[in-house]
Design brief:
- It is a single chain.
- With 104 residues, the protein is mainly β.
- The chain has a single domain, classed as Jelly Rolls (Sandwich).
- It contains no helices and eleven strands.
- The strands form two sheets. Strands 1, 2, 3, 4, 6, 9 and 11 form a seven-stranded antiparallel β-sheet that branches. A four-stranded antiparallel β-sheet has the order 5-10-7-8, with no helix packed on it.
- It is globular, with a radius of gyration of 13 Å.
- This is Pyrimidine/purine nucleoside phosphorylase.
């Protein structure tokens, strides 16, 4: 999906790591929540409260889920993060992402 229609976008940005990671929240009529954002090069650790999919449309990065080895994305790619877990990122070039949150 390259475009979202009939959504509400929250005006205030989500800003992390001194502005190196930013996103905007997109809310759908069915209750689905996504964030669209940009990550600048750097190393980051995030924690989740619910299951989420990190979907990258551009960028070069490595990611590490708990208990797994480092994996790479160069351009497009996605991965699922279970609820209540941490994951690490090493972002090498500006990364464009969409995060989808699941109510499971």
């Amino acid at each position: 999906m390259t475009q979202f229609t009939n959504v509400t976008v929250e005006k205030k940005a989500n800003v992390y790591f001194d502005g190196k990671v930013t996103s905007r929240t997109v809310l759908f009529a069915d209750g689905t929540k996504k964030t669209l954002g940009i990550m600048l090069p750097g190393e980051y650790e995030f924690s989740t409260s619910q299951k989420e999919e990190m979907d990258f449309s551009a960028g070069k990065l490595e990611y590490k889920l708990q208990g797994q080895d480092w994996k790479s994305i160069d351009g497009e790619g996605a991965f699922i993060v279970p609820a209540n877990e941490k994951f690490q990122l090493k972002v090498h070039t500006v990364a464009d992402y969409c995060c989808t949150y699941f109510n499971e």
